[in-house]
Design goal:
By secondary structure, the chain is α/β, with parallel strands linked by helices. 39% of the residues lie in helices and 16% in strands. A five-stranded parallel sheet has the order 4-3-5-6-9, sandwiched between helices.
């Protein structure tokens, strides 16, 4: 067997070994957030009873539930919960910047985003939704096999602790290709790169009737900027570098720029009908997943 084949086999085995831990973390996280089906709580075609409502002008006689109506002086319609499966498209940033962690005790932004995305996918797929990735690599499908496909795709970027690929960009660009009209979408990133690319992606999605959420994942060091004195700042990909003797003098300007970027993201999401949330890797993953799960329900 050639050295190239041996290297490929070694990498494949390493990736396979990482798959069960990712799934185990995601399964556990999903289980803490929701037990049972994800209720859509919208009237429509389905089998599950939702509620009774009074008859309104325009309702036909066959819509009336005569057994329930016989118990009172009013007439009632039996509403069923909407059960048409939705397509949810995901983009999880795998650029170099996402591999940053300012504390060995905390996960990198990439690890946290992967676990959150997988847990969310598990919740959605097991409630009957179709989940896939933006672009053309993995179209939305249902079923347990799709959960495994998603996990494999999320683990394609450089493993933690290994050198990042020379060609990997410092910051991610949201992928908006192959968006299904009127689907829902989830973008997870630090959103620290080119803002025009984010604007273009969300605008393109909104033009196709796609609604969704952007979750900004940051490390606590990136939010606090605790640096003082002499410091060298270098991007994870090594393409950007800044040397300063007074890092504390940069703190105010940095925090202002960070707040400005967050405000831009909020305004963009509001303008395109999306929802915006932010999450620190020092915070509970459960709270971020719960927000994302509820936010998707509101964006439907």
């Amino acid at each position: 067997m050639s050295s190239a084949a041996l290297h490929l086999r070694s990498r494949a085995e390493a990736e396979a070994a990482r798959l069960p831990p990712l799934l185990a973390q995601a399964e556990h996280l999903a289980g803490t957030v929701l037990l049972g089906e994800h209720g859509r709580r919208r009237a429509g075609m389905g089998d599950d009873f939702w509620q009774y409502r009074p008859v309104m002008p325009g309702d036909s006689l066959r819509m009336i539930d005569w057994r329930r109506s016989a118990k009172s002086d009013a007439q009632f319609v039996r509403q069923r919960e909407w059960q048409v499966a939705q397509s949810v498209m995901m983009w999880v940033d795998t650029a170099s910047s996402m591999h940053f962690s300012g504390d060995a005790a905390l996960p990198s932004k990439a690890d946290r985003a992967r676990v959150l995305a997988m847990a969310l996918a598990i919740l959605l797929i097991r409630s009957g939704e179709r989940v896939g990735l933006t672009g053309t690599d993995l179209p939305p499908r249902r079923g347990e096999a799709q959960i495994l496909r998603l996990a494999e795709m999320f683990l394609r970027d450089a493993p933690e602790g290994e050198a990042l690929d020379d060609g990997a960009p410092d910051y991610g660009v949201p992928e908006a290709r192959a968006m299904l009209p009127h689907a829902r979408a989830v973008f997870m990133s630090d959103f620290m790169g080119d803002f025009e690319a984010v604007t273009a992606a969300l605008t393109k999605a909104a033009d196709r009737g796609v609604r969704g959420l952007c979750l900004q994942v940051l490390d606590p060091v990136e939010e606090a900027f605790p640096f003082k004195g002499r410091a060298i700042f270098e991007s994870m990909g090594g393409t950007l570098r800044h040397d300063t003797k007074k890092a504390d003098d940069l703190k105010t300007r940095y925090l202002e720029r960070l707040a400005e970027r967050r405000a831009q993201l909020k305004d963009l999401c509001r303008a395109t009908g999306w929802l915006f949330g932010h999450h620190s890797t020092s915070q509970s993953a459960q709270s971020a997943l719960l927000w994302a799960h509820r936010a998707l329900g509101h964006s439907a």
